[in-house]
Amino acid sequence: MAKILQLEDDQMQVDMYRSWFRLEFPDLQWDFATKPPPLETYRDYDAVFIDFRMGAVNGGDIAMQIKAAYPELPFTIVSGNPPEFILEQFPDLLPEQVLDKSGIEEFTAGIRKALQRWDILPA
Q1: DSSP string computed for 35-96
Q2: Pick from 6, 14, 62, 106: CA 20 to 30 A from residue 55's CA?
Q3: CA 110 → CA 8, 38, 102, 107, 115, distances in Å?
Q4: What value, to the nearest 5°, has the Cα angle with vertex 4 and ends 57 and 64?
């Protein structure tokens, strides 16, 4: 079973995602963190979804740290901001590494697409 880490600082969203993803992705183990864990923790996961605005911490900075330490670990930044806004700030990111989380259905479809791209879910 693949292990997925979702970094999200809003506990209400964590609770919603936990319930929703359990229904949508029952064959995956989802772990949630409201604060970024130590860098070495990421190696225990098959993929990471990172909230762009995590209080004082910037999800783009977390993504760059993960990319430098574990270049093979797939990640996606999720945000209510337009993807262009994030891509302007972090030009090393690819467009498919940024996902709009404004609507739960679109967000879920984007997560599914990323998991399929990473061969975690069948296409």
Answers
A1: SPPPGGGGGG-SEEEEESEETTEEHHHHHHHHHHH-TTS-EEEEESS-HHHHHHH-TTS-GG
A2: 106
A3: 16, 26, 11, 5, 9
A4: 40
DSSP 1: -
Q: For residues 43 and 11, what is the distance between their CA atoms, to the nearest angstrom?
A: 24
d(CA 99, CA 77): 6
pTM score of the predicted model: 0.93
Asked if 113 and 101 touch (Cβ cutoff 8 Å), the reply is: no
The candidate with the shortest Cα–Cα distance to 48, out of 78, 74, 80, is: 74
Other residues' Cβ atoms within 10 Å of the Cβ of residue 103: 11
